[in-house]
Write a structure and sequence with these properties.
six-stranded antiparallel β-barrel, 7 helices, alpha+beta, Thrombin, subunit H, 2 domains
């Protein structure tokens, strides 16, 4: 095997979980292209309550369920069939969601409502209401829908701080697995900082990734997607999104989009119907001992090797160099923060930057450390 072949195998930056399945709609998922319905946004401050719980764990879980479950909804979806010879047929799917504010905005997954023709929300008390799509973001697999009438006294859920989560912390999922409404499961945070392929696609056919994903052993199954993952204070710390399983049912590993992403993205979906993701425009590879040896780097050197720079992207405009045209740049810091791997860079760009912002990359080029300012643009998609 040549060095070039070895590099091509080693320098893949897109992390793909081969058995990762969307945990959402229990029906078939449709292709992208849904035209969302827009309603007048309302963005005043949300009214939320922190749940006061007892010290006894068993009683605590009972109280948490009784307080939270009324704000968790079952979302029933009708969508057009995928295949061309079944275009006039509708497919049925379902997922979960939770009340975000007192204006009737409900947070769920993008893949739950994708290509929806009709949406119905079923509340815990059995009341049903037609819903409209307010905004969607395939890049984070988040969506906001809205209903006009809420049950009297229904309170929205509070968002917790997903950055404060620790591995081993107990968490709770409430949703509608297999259509079984109001189901509660418990477990722990089994890992943090995972990366999942998003529903957002590049024009070339690749996929963007969602960083800072929460991994949990809490039972999550088809129908749970869009429902809340909660800490023991009853705060939403994640949106249950996917499972890793060869049999499309829970096998010990579930994934949730962190609440910090919800806090950042959902208000934009309510206000504008979409969320502009900042974009750097590179493909890169984490360093390993083989790459360090080939490039003559110290074995304790960290950073991201720039494999290629997309033409016309922010990195290209800033003069960043990729391995595909010679000796690639090595990104070691962004705005002074150490970058050890691609997850670090993706997490920083996603959580700390915005479109139009100029960041400074510390780059090792030809054995010299240089600073490269880059103005971030909006992430392109397959649709444009």
């Amino acid at each position: 095997m040549t060095v070039t072949q070895t590099r091509k195998q080693a320098w893949s930056f897109i992390i793909v979980l081969s058995a990762a399945l969307l945990a959402g709609c229990s029906g078939l998922l449709s292709a992208p292209g849904d035209q969302t319905l827009q309603i007048e946004p309302q963005t005043e401050a949300r009214t939320v309550e922190r749940i006061v719980v007892t010290s006894d764990l068993g009683e605590r879980l009972v109280e948490l369920y009784e307080a939270v479950n009324p704000a968790v909804v079952n979302i029933q979806v009708q969508r057009r069939a995928e295949s061309s010879f079944q275009q006039d047929q509708l497919q049925f799917g379902q997922g979960s969601g939770f009340l975000f504010d007192q204006f009737g905005h409900i947070v769920t997954n993008f893949h739950v409502v994708e290509n929806a023709v009709t949406l119905n929300v079923i509340f815990a008390d059995g009341r049903s209401s037609v819903a409209q799509i307010v905004g969607t973001d395939p890049g984070s697999d988040l969506a906001v829908i809205s209903v006009e009438d809420l049950p009297v006294g229904l309170m929205p859920l509070s968002l917790g701080d997903s950055d404060a989560l620790r591995v081993g912390e107990q968490v709770v999922a409430i949703g509608n697995p297999f259509g079984l409404q109001g189901t509660m499961t418990t477990g722990i945070v089994s890992a943090l900082g995972r990366t999942l392929p998003s529903q957002g696609q590049i024009a070339s056919g690749g996929q963007f990734s969602i960083p800072s994903i929460i991994q949990t052993d809490t039972a999550i199954n088809p129908g749970n997607s869009g429902g809340p993952l909660l800490n023991l204070a009853g705060e939403v710390v994640g949106i249950n999104t996917a499972i890793e399983s060869p049999v499309r049912q829970f096998s010990g590993v579930g994934f949730a989009v962190p609440s910090d992403a919800v806090a950042r993205i959902v208000p934009a979906l309510i206000e504008r119907g979409e969320f502009p993701h900042p974009w750097l425009g590179i493909s890169g590879a984490d360093l390993n001992s083989q790459i360090r040896q080939e490039l003559g780097l110290a074995q304790d050197q960290w950073g991201i090797l720039v494999v290629s720079v997309l033409e016309g992207g922010p990195a290209s405009e800033a003069g960043l160099r990729g391995q595909d045209i010679g000796e690639g740049d090595l990104i070691t810091r962004v705005d002074g923060f150490e970058i050890r791997d691609f997850e670090d860079l993706l997490t920083y760009l996603t959580g700390e930057t915005s479109v139009g912002q100029t960041i400074t990359l510390s780059v090792l080029r030809d054995s010299q450390q240089i600073e490269v300012p880059v103005e971030l643009s909006e992430r392109p998609t397959a649709e444009g």
